Amino acid sequence: MELIELLLRLKAIKESEGIYKLDSKYRFGTLDISRSGSGYLNDFSSQEAKDLIIESSDLATASKGDTVLAKRIFKKGGRGRAKIIEILKKEFESIVVFTKMVENQILGFNIKTQLPVTLAASQKYLKELPLGTVFKIDNNSGIIVDVLGVLDDPKVDEKISLAIYNKKEFFSPQAELEASSFGDNVDKSLYPNRVDLTNLPFCTIDPPTAKDFDDAIYFDKKHSILYVAIADVSEYIKEDTAIDKEARERGFSIYFPHKSIPMLPRALSENICSLKPKVDRLAFVYKMSIDKKEAKVIKEEIIEAIIHSKRRYTYDKIDLFLAGDFADKDSVDDTILEYLLPLNKLLGAFRAKRLENGCEFRSSDFTMSLDENQNLIDIKEELETPSHSLIEDAMLLANKAAAHSFERGIFRVHDEPSLERIEEMMDDLEVIGIYAEIKDNIYETIKELQKSADAKDLRQEVDKLIIRAQKQAVYSSENRRHFGLGFEHYTHFTSPIRRYSDLIVHRLLKAIKNEDKKLQNYILKSIDIVASRVSELERESAKVAWDYEDRKYARWAKEHIGDEILAVVVDSDKMIAKFSEGVMMGARVFLIDSDVKLFGEVKVKILESHITSARIIGTIVELEVKNV
């Protein structure tokens, strides 16, 4: 109503018989700003309407992405123009700027857009600080909120990446106090209504650097029952407590190469909630009876339990076990191995069945190694291994089971890609000799494309293109199936320590299990907003991690101008390649060349590297088209 009153005072809207209408001279839209400083209004009123030009002098204090009210400027001929009348919603409440000298004046520049920003600080103050000082400023007033550091210091990168997306590392004193109040140990006698599963030999399987253990598994091979135990975070975090408010604001844990920014205080995420070995822990457990011949779950039961994980394993160690390598006798627990090996075989059958109506993509991640000053010193390609598949398939079954339990809640949905996007991608691939026919079943079309890519030894590259052609998986209050996995029902249940969506699912499942209609209604009342918000937070958290990695690549490249490194062209339209060797493996480089072939293997010379925008510029010095 405040906004309506404002628009009425500005005479931008008119009211007639209870209906508000926008005056024809005004437009609502989002603002885009070019590098020249001119603005463009993306008009909300029509998809077909051409963007209105806004001169830099008419931008007021609006920034790129802001939602604004603009008034049209009528001139004969030429493109439509407008000026900003009011900023209705800032895209970002705060932004990150750095300082540099321009004509003997210290000016601030947006670190993402490189556009000048008005700073509410005197030249005297600014000149006392080194050039390249990085600030977080209030986007409405220009007031400096925080001094993050200086660009020359590699340790400032994590602060920049967090500040760009308005993320914080530390928790409020109230949240920390609440978290520490739960202590370090679980006393079983305090939970007489919980099912005691501490006699079962659960184990956890995680990366070697993991500190928060969300999940543990146990397989009763005699009765063919799989137990997936998940940390019972909802037992400790109640609605609208200080911890809950912070977790809701963060949405997800963020993982940097050298540290994590957890969603929950470490007293919870790395201690009382974490399913650490050889201690009792509260868990929410799915007990799933399995028909081994049909590779399907025939009964699902959810249990509020207490478990006692017997062993903590790493992926590397389990891969050795699955390959039959038991040389390290001290790390072998016979009771666990007795069920892990047959479980792996059984879950392999589930995977094969799932892929009849689902997709499988080959991908790899890159793990950075940093020195004590947070400079990039090495990178390692991480490929999916049998141990990863074992845990993933077990978690998929638990997530499916959770999704079967409610008709409205938080689902993980993935819409089918449009035929137009697939055809467009196939046109690009035909240029380099990768062909497939459009089938009635889109899964079959994708599989034929992958088969053709295998023949060219370009499977991983083509899989990335197929993923880009698809719509992004999101959270939704209504079930719309998950195209990529081929599941009719799917949610996220297995990571409540690091995903707020999972915590909401736990609360909903408990309310359903305990027939607490009041709590169910309370959760579902705002479920649409929650689902939309966690989808946004998921994207933001991923962007923070990617931004940080790009900054580390850019710093390394800055010290290696002139180096020539092998790369693969991943986007022939936007002229983007990815380095494929050495410390720069996985880094994007923007090419100044004008004629390249998709997936061509090229040698690129580093020409420029900008630490502020984390952008590397290069040129092709040698062309070696790969398998084309």
Question: How does this structure look, described?
Answer:
Helices cover 29% and strands 29% of the residues. The strands form nine sheets. The chain has a five-stranded antiparallel β-sheet with strand order 5-4-3-6-7, with no helix packed on it. The model has no long low-confidence stretch (mean pLDDT 91). The protein is an alpha+beta fold and 628 residues long. The protein is globular. It folds into five domains: 2-89, Nucleic acid-binding proteins (OB fold (Dihydrolipoamide Acetyltransferase, E2P), Beta Barrel); 94-152, OB fold (Dihydrolipoamide Acetyltransferase, E2P) (Beta Barrel), CATH 2.40.50; 173-414 and 475-545, no CATH class; 419-470, no CATH class; 560-624, Nucleic acid-binding proteins (OB fold (Dihydrolipoamide Acetyltransferase, E2P), Beta Barrel), CATH 2.40.50.
